[in-house]
Sequence to fold (688 residues):
Amino acid sequence: MPELRQDPLSGRWVIIATGRAKRPEAFAPAARPAPSPEHDATCCFCPGQEATTPPEVLAYRAPGAAPDSPGWQVRVVPNKFAAFDGATDRQPAMLQGLEQRRPAFGAAEVIVGTPRHDRTLALASDAELAQMIHAHQERYRELAARPGVAYVMLFRNQGAWAGASQRHPHSQIMALPVVPAAVATELDRAAAHHGMHGSCLMCQVIARERAHGARVLADDGRFVLFTPYASRTPFELMIAPIGHQADLGHLSPEDEAGLGRQLGLAMRMLDRALGDPPHNFYLHAAPCGADDAGRWSESYHWHLSILPRLTTPAAFELGSGILINITVPEAAAAFLREYRTEPV
Amino acid sequence: MPELRQDPLSGRWVIIATGRAKRPEAFAPAARPAPSPEHDATCCFCPGQEATTPPEVLAYRAPGAAPDSPGWQVRVVPNKFAAFDGATDRQPAMLQGLEQRRPAFGAAEVIVGTPRHDRTLALASDAELAQMIHAHQERYRELAARPGVAYVMLFRNQGAWAGASQRHPHSQIMALPVVPAAVATELDRAAAHHGMHGSCLMCQVIARERAHGARVLADDGRFVLFTPYASRTPFELMIAPIGHQADLGHLSPEDEAGLGRQLGLAMRMLDRALGDPPHNFYLHAAPCGADDAGRWSESYHWHLSILPRLTTPAAFELGSGILINITVPEAAAAFLREYRTEPV
Fold:
């Protein structure tokens, strides 16, 4: 019988549709997609085409090397096609009766974490991953400290089916004037839990996952990787720090290395099991606005969600807000574990 | 400059990304998809294959003709691949600490509104559309009256990209044990508006759209068809009755004909302008459960949302709950109006 499961963090209900369930191996692709070339002379993120992007705001390159030229390992540039304008003033909402609008100011940047066009996260070394995480954290801290910024959102798309417009591996970071609704819902639930139980909801979820074990894919004592209880999609994954951390601003070098390792592990399992599937990931952390400083430090706990895009939400999901997952999360975890070749 | 717009019904914020805006004509397809054949002997919804579905629960056919055999104009069958089981008892949620679950019981049916495999809504006659709407209402009333049913959801997917697993045109109807979150949010906002202003929020939205006019595509005095102020996708459309109606249980024959006409008009505009795009539609109406009888009759007002699937939500949208629409709704309306050839 199908069952409805509720995600403890968001309150979201998901139908785990066992009646129409696909066995996890049914998602294994007939053939892997053709690999990208190592370098693409038409790609705006490949070395040699630095002039096609706005000037870099951060780069890791040999000391003394010229900016906006080849030789970098990580490069961060403003997003030319930003949905948000770069204006820095917080402007009041313009109220016009039923038509509420406000300028969409903020900042949007692209983090190109590798000069290689073909270097997906699944192929990156642990050292490359740690360096990439460090760049994410550097930009996160800088944007979070800007006046008027309420929230900094980190996310990544890979594959056209997952909405990526550029094939070269990259992440994105956006500074927003508002706390997004999806985060606000989790903040409210976490605060309510903390008020009632005096503990962090995510800490409890993590303790439950580690004790239960059926959905855990890796646990190194610092980070845990698992398929969430109410996974929205087949093979949804979550990575969270085991020790309580509200936001991304306080990662130690060991945290950066540990997060990089778990991210690489997750991506290699998806890559081997499902043939480099299109996917999205995003990070949910406590807001950074001055109004919110410290407000969520005890109740909220950051986590990274990875969503392979193997199915298509249709009218039922769009109209109801209830998602249908055709794979049981425990079975997805068991399947992926078969593709974990590294010790953890 | 891009702007954030808030949908008055749901409270959802949408970024209207004028900076990366596509002109509406950029969505016009290079070539139309190949048309379907009139009949497909491998299709479970085509006449002659009635035995491949569960027995029909409703059909419009010549008097005296045998059930589950050819000759029907509309045929409704249980969904073989239902996400919801057919059990009729309302069972309590099973509480297990962080793992909240409940059986996903309910009913799911497929409304095959035409015997012709190639007869999309854009190609259907007004008489066929009215008959199809009548069948939808008949099933809606029957399912809404069942014990334990809190909500009846009507929806439709066309095209593989929009999640349709069958090419033969069809709608779906589901009876749910809970009011879906997306509807509950709108109910709360509508009730708050009614409490504060003594009027229906949707009635006000409709009055504003009709007076403003820039987003209206058709208005026959009974139904209005428009691109919503905070459209989520390029060419999102909404159809609503101008007179206040809380749910779908009270359509007169004139309403059925009028709704069918506007739906056909909407689909023909999309078809001509955008080459039969993949799309979803769903209907939001007041809940039908015994606990809710009459509770929403003054504050809630049903409406049909049509969402062409021309863009792909990516990690930013999934993680933030904020959608990005790369076409301005007023421009989308102006573009579609050029493809309206019928008098309205």
